[in-house]
């Protein structure tokens, strides 16, 4: 049996794309270059797997929506979340939330790929259910310093606001108390003057 030339070329292109991604990851020091390479690889894998799903289910004569409706909806949601985060990165490239958006893109891009593979290989969902928490834990532990700094800054700002509010209330109560004492003193002095007269 002679292999189809188009399939061989498509497989070769996928290997070259993967090599391009790995070269970009290892050669580039900037996170932006790595992220763009990840985006290109993700777009390629999604289009490749979507085409493979189309061919697979066309041969079976069944619609993927009939057999894997939930997975298709989850894939659409993961793709929409990824797209929104990617647009945010493109519109605000120097934003302070850039690492968070990149993490969102990483997580939801990988989930989208996993969902497409789960549509092709049905028992794959068991692996995915076990792998997703590990992936999320890995991303959170990688971003631990940034997350802890954000939490510390938030708690510190709330603490400062509480201290300022306490000082303001203390000043108001002290002022009200001094006004009450001075009013009481004036009343006492007024009563004593009337008694003298």
UniProtKB/TrEMBL annotation:
Which keywords has UniProt assigned to this entry?
Membrane, Transmembrane, Transmembrane helix
On whether Transmembrane helix is a keyword of this UniProt record, the answer is yes
Q: Which InterPro entries match?
A: Ca-permeable_cation_channel (IPR053258)
Transmembrane feature ranges: 41-62, 68-87, 99-121, 127-144
Superkingdom to which the source organism belongs: Eukaryota
What name does this protein carry? Uncharacterized protein
Which species?
Quercus lobata
Q: What is the lineage of its organism?
A: Eukaryota, Viridiplantae, Streptophyta, Embryophyta, Tracheophyta
């Amino acid at each position: 049996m002679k292999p189809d030339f188009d399939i061989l070329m498509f497989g070769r292109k996928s290997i070259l794309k993967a090599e391009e991604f790995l070269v970009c990851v290892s050669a580039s020091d900037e996170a932006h270059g790595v992220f763009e390479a990840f985006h290109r690889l993700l777009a390629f894998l999604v289009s490749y797997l979507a085409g493979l799903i189309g061919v697979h289910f066309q041969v079976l004569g069944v619609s993927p929506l009939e057999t894997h409706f939930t997975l298709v909806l989850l894939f659409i949601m993961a793709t929409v979340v990824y797209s929104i985060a990617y647009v945010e990165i493109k519109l605000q490239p120097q934003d302070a939330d850039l690492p968070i958006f990149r993490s969102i893109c990483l997580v939801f891009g990988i989930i989208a790929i996993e969902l497409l593979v789960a549509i092709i290989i049905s028992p794959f969902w068991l692996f995915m259910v076990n792998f997703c928490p590990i992936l999320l834990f890995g991303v959170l532990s990688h971003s631990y310093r940034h997350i802890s700094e954000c939490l510390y800054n938030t708690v510190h700002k709330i603490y400062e606001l509480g201290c300022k509010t306490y000082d303001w209330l203390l000043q108001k109560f002290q002022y009200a108390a001094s006004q009450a004492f001075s009013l009481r003193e004036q009343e006492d002095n007024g009563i004593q003057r009337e008694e003298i007269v």
